Amino acid sequence: MAVKKYVHFFGSGKADGNGKMKDLLGGKGAGLAEMTNLKIPVPAGFTITTEACNEYFRNKKKYPAGMWDQVLANLRKVEKAMGMKLGDKENPLLVSVRSGAKFSMPGMMDTVLNLGLNEATLRALVRKTGNERFAYDAYRRFITMFGSIVMGIDRQVFEKALERMKERKNVHLDTDLGAEDLRELVKEFKTLYQAQTGAAFPEDPLEQLKHAIDAVFGSWFGERAAKYRKLNGIPDDLGTACNVQTMVFGNMGENSGTGVGFTRDPSTGEKRFFAECLINAQGEDVVAGIRTPLHIDELKRRLPAAYKELDRIYKKLEKHYRDMLDIEFTVQDGKLYMLQTRVGKRTAAAALRIAIDMVKERLIDKKTAIMRIDADQLDQLLHPTIDPKAAVEVIAKGLPASPGAAVGKVVFNAEDAEKWAANKEKVILVRPETSPEDIGGMHAAQGILTARGGMTSHAAVVARGMGKCCVVGCGAINIKEDLKQFSVDSHIIREGDYITLNGTTGQVILGQVPLTQPELTRDFATIMKWSDEFRKIGVRANADTPKDARLAREFGAEGIGLVRTEHMFFEGDRIKAVREMILADDTEGRKKALAKILPMQKGDFIGIFTEMKGLPVTIRLLDPPLHEFLPHTDEELELLAEDMNVPVERLKARNKALREFNPMLGHRGCRLAVTYPEIYEMQVQAIMEAACESAKNKIRVGVEIMIPLIADVREQEVMREMAVRIAEAVQKEHKTRVPYSVGCMIEIARAALTADEIATQAEFFSLGTNDLTQTTFGLSRDDAGRFLPYYIEKGILPDDPFITLDRKGVGAMMRMAVEKGRSIKKNLKIGICGEQVDPKSVEFCDLIGLTYVSASPYRIPIARLTGAQAALRKKMKKDLSKASV
Amino acid sequence: MAVKKYVHFFGSGKADGNGKMKDLLGGKGAGLAEMTNLKIPVPAGFTITTEACNEYFRNKKKYPAGMWDQVLANLRKVEKAMGMKLGDKENPLLVSVRSGAKFSMPGMMDTVLNLGLNEATLRALVRKTGNERFAYDAYRRFITMFGSIVMGIDRQVFEKALERMKERKNVHLDTDLGAEDLRELVKEFKTLYQAQTGAAFPEDPLEQLKHAIDAVFGSWFGERAAKYRKLNGIPDDLGTACNVQTMVFGNMGENSGTGVGFTRDPSTGEKRFFAECLINAQGEDVVAGIRTPLHIDELKRRLPAAYKELDRIYKKLEKHYRDMLDIEFTVQDGKLYMLQTRVGKRTAAAALRIAIDMVKERLIDKKTAIMRIDADQLDQLLHPTIDPKAAVEVIAKGLPASPGAAVGKVVFNAEDAEKWAANKEKVILVRPETSPEDIGGMHAAQGILTARGGMTSHAAVVARGMGKCCVVGCGAINIKEDLKQFSVDSHIIREGDYITLNGTTGQVILGQVPLTQPELTRDFATIMKWSDEFRKIGVRANADTPKDARLAREFGAEGIGLVRTEHMFFEGDRIKAVREMILADDTEGRKKALAKILPMQKGDFIGIFTEMKGLPVTIRLLDPPLHEFLPHTDEELELLAEDMNVPVERLKARNKALREFNPMLGHRGCRLAVTYPEIYEMQVQAIMEAACESAKNKIRVGVEIMIPLIADVREQEVMREMAVRIAEAVQKEHKTRVPYSVGCMIEIARAALTADEIATQAEFFSLGTNDLTQTTFGLSRDDAGRFLPYYIEKGILPDDPFITLDRKGVGAMMRMAVEKGRSIKKNLKIGICGEQVDPKSVEFCDLIGLTYVSASPYRIPIARLTGAQAALRKKMKKDLSKASV
Questions:
Q1: How far apart are CA B415 and CA B444, in angstroms?
Q2: d(Cα B47, Cα B99) in Å, to the nearest integer?
Q3: One-character DSSP codes across B1-65
Q4: Distance set, CA A160 to CA A110, A140, B104, B257 (Å)
Q5: DSSP class of residue A709?
């Protein structure tokens, strides 16, 4: 049997492998092979395959037969290509050794540089460079890296020796040590190495190489790497490749240099080479910031040939990779070498500009442009952001509930927020948690910070709906409402003190930090337009007011997926009537109070219908438990009693009677309508009157009446009968017909399990993934803050299921609802209104065939983009599977 | 095409049908046919089939072709058999008309008696009986029944006329009216009839009959009947049969009589004829209690021939039906007629005795005996019951949370309960709701009454565990703790007042009612023994203490399915250490406090292992949220602070910090161990030390360590690793091996959905159907009391899912857990520990292949019985399906 090919050479313009062989060569190895094949000067080297790594482990940590011979043979090819020899006393080859798996992975082995140095080659290096200090510095670095990374010695052992040396020499910087000092240090390092490992530092470069390869392979099953794979579902049997590559030095004199750059401006996306360099320096020096890098024009001036070559290469690379690249190069003795190239990081604005420009340049097509835009980045464009150049003092971190940034003076209650804002003050509302009563204050504030609550707590949901920066569940802050201050560690922040919030990261920052304001550019509009060309899944908005509805239309919503009617209950005088209803002793009393609310609700609906111009509007009937509409503290109750002119005892008694152990699982949603049918009756009346009156005014309407918290088909049947009865009566009364349908939320496990039955009584479903996640996981979103972070930290769960849809559990429920629902009604309209519009979630929604996703207006653009990406990914997979047939 | 047979005759010892034809003849019709075929004298008659009814409706309420002719033909057969003729002026036949579906159903048509009476036949009747009063009384009753039941006239119309007549005559009782008065009344009734219907009262008996048949058919789609069918899943297309039967009269003189009886003593089960009779009286008179019935010996004395016949018949019937029967008979002019026979109702004690006796008499086999025992009735035998002869004043009704009855003086807190009980007072503890702190008081009380909470609230679960009478969720009572009194309607019950609770019905009764004490008889033991012969599913107990464990063994438990370790946390001084643990600032502090708890927990486990003698013991690690261990009111906190010598502010702050929005979905179960691993570590340590020490003392142990609230396999993996690590260490330390396994609760929807993954890390599952019901339904058991009763009342849900397993939703989850779990481990042990041991639930558990059910010790006998019944039912179904192949 012929021996397998375990080692792939690259160098001299020809590589055994290519860029597509990531499985076998790892990402880095494949990239080096690709560049080599492009005739781009890359220091020669070779890649040991992942297959070799796997066989090594299957083989009780022995190299597979023939591998070492192939290493030696390829080493000879490298030596030949570079005109140097490993261990040679005249012209020694030095190499770097790096791990490189298919996926970039934390915990894999770091780079070992300068491998091949020993007493003999060191002397050769001194001679060759004429720089003793450089050579000894390289040697001591090599011993440190080899000792710590390859042999597992605590790096501190070497660092401390270095410190002692500096103390002895009375200097502060490593660079202040001379050649003599470093020679001494090398000696000490070797002694330390022997003390730690029980063996002398290996002089034989091949022995060094073997150890390094072993360490690269070994790092595949290192603790961190193994854990990372487990968490990310990366199979253990992928293995890692090992890259051995010739070292080049940019610090070999004035004819040498090094630099890094981007093929386009990573900040604006402008098409111009954006790079910096250093003459007679090593790559590390640029990174370490020891010397200030020069504009790339300096390279042009001082090493014009190398610059010309670089200019040719970066353009060639960009054309080849069809993307903006981040590159690293070194000029050794006048010769340019490319050390790395990868897709470059960029700002959101740059990402849009580059994608659009490249389409214009015919480098990429629109599909590729869409796939390249990162949804989270897009979000930045819709909100103020913290100036990246600003120095900030982060004092605490909460959950990033609603993106953007906000600066303002701290206030501790909603009333103050409104008062201060009326005086043109910018305020940040800080609360233990928010409740529907705080909405006015939240509106008035620039941003909201809460000590409790999770990603879908009241504060989070409302703030996202308002497009307002919000940080929640910041347990580190200790609020003392009575003193109007909060403390965190040793800081005490008082009312009126400035803080800055970063809702994208969850950071709470001391003082006023300058913000960058968002701007909806033409590029943005172009990307949205292109997205809609590819998107299959519908995009609707969660919007509760005519104002939100208008915003939703502006952002491109194709309808409203969720009108939360309870939000209308809080505005202005309505809350009074609502409370009157709650306090009523009987049905008659409730009906009387509800009659006061009806015209106001009707007005809202007319406003929303008018804005939506005939697009579908899904209106959810009252969902929260009634106690949410009463204040909770004794003081507030006393004020209310006075205001309502009822005995406070009665209010207290009612409040106590309504109290629930687990409100999430309590008397809410359609359960309210089972006990108090008059509430939903009033709401349907208001909706249908609004629809009929709008229709009479030539406004087209698309009414979808939605029943929340359905667990059994009989509930839906009873509710549907009621809705149809009233809808028909109102239409008859108004002598007009309007299209309307009655559907329900699927947000309880049992509803998903019995969706086939429920579908017989529902014209549409809306998957309420927030509550579905809560019931499927048995997890209260408002309480999860106490333990969920530990779950993520310890790797028990990969993501917060309230942010990224849990496909395994909640997803299974959703799939069940879709399959069972459509087994009864083939074309059943099924949406999702849980705000999950991140790419993974939308991809899943598209995959299981949902009709639309719905999210707050400010998240519509993200949904349009991720919807397009999901459709494109699906198409790609289909094309792939067709191709493979 | 031949006309179908729509009418089945019975009479003269020969019936067209038989007892098995319930589908076609309905239950009543089939029974009459069966008796007739047994040569038992039954007044002749005929049954119109359910098929005729169905065709009638398909046919727009027209009789199917040929039916009326068959009615007339069969009427002639009846006339011939009885020697009388319908409408005959000499010897008129009178008939009764009754509906009779396959299943007995409320809302179906009542009986119309004396049909065939008109002016002419009335006179014949007067002549024949020589009793004018009797004849007119029969006539006015007929008009009332026909008018109201058949023609739908409000019965009040006739009742009021009767009242007016009595006023005019200045008499009090109907029987005080003479023949003259009744004749006058008949006249008035006819006028009223005409006024209401617009037509004269029909004189033609055939017209009367046709109307009556129409009414019987019509009642099938009556509102109540239709609703009942919908609720109980009875198909609409079964239809009802219609029975037309000759009237016989026991009030035709001293040679006539009537009676009712049981073939054995329905109270004790003793084998003796247990009947009463009246001479010269109608059946109605016995039922109405107008005259005091005589001992059956009176019949023997006065009508010996009839008695002899009766004696022969009841024995024959019992032998035929192989069960104790309830019979009704009439002697008309010396001739005995049987009017009805059906299986007789009996007390629990009688049920056991009869079943066992009949096995001895070889009338039935053991299987039949087991199937006949009603599980709920069996429960009566284990608890005191209210003397059925006592007159009671029920003042309120709550949920029947724990069966039995209790009498005592009312106290309003646990402390008082303990104090009063120490003074030999019997008390009933009345609380808004109970919490773990009340356990001492609950122990001390005879019974518990709460205003809030559902069937699985704390009070309910704990009381059932104690086998103590308990009524919960009694919303009608208004407790004023400060005044130590509660009110309900106009009653005010103060501390020290007597009340009586019926935990089997949920009734709250004023004052002291005499109770009947339970007695575990030899009959009981026999039934248990027989049950175990047939039962396949295992029966375990939920038991938390050595005392409970002993009780469980005595009741026949085959292991413990659930030890709730948290209950151990409350006892005596332990709660102090627990609170110290909760208040600790860091892991070290918690460990210190836990070290104090460890020896106490160990002691409990040793006690339980010792009692269980090697039977498996499933121990659930700590489940409730930590705040359950702290008191909640400010006063209690202040006392505790003093007691613990810590500032009350610190306690309050901790209490506030631990507060949760939805504790059910909060920081509990294994989530506690993710954040505070030391708690579970201590518990596993205590369990394994207890096991090792027991093993050393030659006590066999079967340890099953159970992790609660698992939602993802990774949780179980982490917990299992911890448990195995500690278990191995303890065994090594003790130099002994004990069998142990680690499993988990499946009580969250997501666990059921991913049970295949979880099974890789679990050696057993226990289905926690309480929490599974809560999460599947999105329903808090503690809050459901506010709306769940409406659901049952309005027929939206058929049962309280916390009492009877919801097969459709929760059952689907259970099935999923079993199938997925066993797809990985074929013989995975899977139990259920949710206390659902009612026949329907156990049948389902048996059906899906659960290994065992587990319930509190007092419910073990029910579980043993229902387990046997489930196995027998399964076998019967199998045999049936085999037979049909």
A1: 10
A2: 9
A3: -PPP--EEEEETTEESS-TT-HHHHHHHHHHHHHHHHTT-----EEEE-HHHHHHHHHTTS-PPT
A4: 21, 13, 93, 117
A5: S
Q: For chain A of 885 residues, list the mean pLDDT of each consecutive stretch of 10.
A: 87 92 92 93 96 93 95 97 94 94 77 92 90 90 92 91 91 83 94 94 96 93 81 82 94 86 90 90 65 85 95 95 92 91 84 96 96 85 84 89 90 92 92 83 92 78 81 89 90 94 92 85 94 97 93 94 88 83 87 93 96 96 92 81 84 84 93 94 97 95 97 96 97 96 97 97 96 94 84 84 90 97 97 88 95 92 95 88 66
Q: What's the distance, Cα to Cα, between the start and end of chain B in Å?
A: 32
Contacts of A86 (CB under 8 A, 6+ apart): A75, A79, A92, A93, A95, A116, A205, A206, A209
In 10 A of CB A482, how many CB atoms? 7
Taking CB atoms and an 8 Å cutoff, what residues of chain A touch B780?
660-662, 664-666
Contacts of residue A583, Cβ cutoff 8 Å, sequence gap at least 6: A589, A644, A646, A650, A651, A654
Q: Are B257 and B296 in contact (CB under 8 A)?
A: no
Q: Which amino acid type is present at position B732?
A: K
Return d(Cα A398, Cα A268) in angstroms, integer. Answer: 30
- Rounded to whole angstroms, the Cα distance separating B727 from B695 reads 14
Instruction: Tell whether B753 is within 8 A of chain A (Cβ).
Output: yes
DSSP letter string over A216-250?
HHHHTTSHHHHHHHHHHT--GGG-EEEEEEE---S
Residues of B catalogued as catalytic: 458, 833
A30-A32-A34-A35 Cα dihedral, nearest 10 degrees = 160
Whose tokens are 């010739």? That residue is: A246
**Distance linking the first and last C-alpha atoms of chain A:** 31
A179 close to A123: Cβ distance less than 8 angstroms: no
Residues A299 and A322 sit within 8 Å (Cβ to Cβ): no
What single-letter amino acid sits at B174?
D
Tell me how far apart the alpha carbons of residues A57 and A42 are, in angstroms, rounded to a whole number.
31
Ramachandran region, residue B235 (left: φ > 0; alpha: ψ -120 to 50; beta: rest): beta
Interatomic CA distance for residues A92 and B84, integer angstroms: 132
List Cβ<8 Å contacts ≥24 apart for A13-16. Answer: A13/A37, A13/A39
Q: Please tell me whether the interface predicted TM-score (ipTM) of this complex is above 0.85.
A: no
C-alpha–C-alpha distance, residues B546 and B532, integer Å: 24
- For A574, which DSSP code? H
Adjacent-strand bridge partners of B705: B619, B742
SS (H, E, C) A426-483: CEEEEECCCCHHHHHHHHHCCEEEECCCCCCCHHHHHHHHHCCEEEECCCCCEEECCC
Q: Identify which of B660, B747, B791 has the shortest CB distance to residue A674.
A: B791
A/B interface, count of CB pairs below 8 Å: 164
CB atoms within 10 A of CB A58: 11
Q: At what angle do helices B119-129 and B132-145 cross, to 10 degrees?
A: 140
Q: A827, A847 in Cβ contact below 8 A?
A: no
Output phi, psi for B858, to 5 deg. -70, -15
Question: CA-CA-CA-CA torsion for A501, A507, A508, A510, nearest 10 degrees?
Answer: -90
The CA distance from B788 to the nearest CA of chain A, in Å, is: 9
Q: How many residues does chain B have?
A: 885
| A712 in B contact zone (CB under 8 Å) | yes
Q: At what angle do helices A677-696 and A587-612 cross, to 10 degrees?
A: 30
Mind telling me how many Å the CA of A664 is from chain B's nearest CA? 7
Alpha helices in B198-259 (DSSP H): 205-219, 223-232
Chain A touched by B227 (CB under 8 Å): no
